[in-house]
Write a structure and sequence with these properties.
The chain is an all-beta fold. Helix content is about 0%, strand content about 50%. The termini are far apart.
Length: about 120
């Protein structure tokens, strides 16, 4: 099983930017889908964005469309989530995940990273 490692969270003021990264331990096949979800304590895990590795097709939640960009990262086997114009409601623990379907449903993803905190102050 993949052991994903997420990084890049932190504290930022509203309107600022952060970039999250997610690294997989081995080769990412072209059919794979990398995704990010987020979760606020006491609430269900919420879909953020997904990216099919080979063709680059993307899927975004309406709440982040136009502000967040998911893509390949700067190094091999790494995906990135560029988050711009951050809002306080973006505050959550962000989890990366890998699966085979370009889906917004958490159960479609088989492996998850450990989560990284993103806090946006107003």
């Amino acid at each position: 099983q993949a052991q994903l490692v997420g990084s890049g969270g932190g504290l930022v003021q509203a309107g600022g930017s952060l970039r999250l990264s997610c690294s997989a331990p081995g080769r990412i096949f072209s059919s794979a889908v990398m995704a990010w979800f987020r979760q606020v304590q006491g609430k269900e895990r919420e879909f953020v964005a997904a990216f099919r590795w080979g063709v680059g097709r993307t899927l975004y939640a309406d709440s982040v469309k136009g502000r967040f960009t998911i893509s390949r990262g700067d190094t091999a086997n790494t995906a990135s989530l560029q988050m711009n114009d951050l809002k306080p409601e973006d505050t959550a623990v962000y989890y990366c995940a890998i699966g085979v379907d370009l889906s917004s449903v958490p159960s479609q993803y088989r492996d998850w990273g450990q989560g990284t905190q993103v806090t946006v102050s107003s």
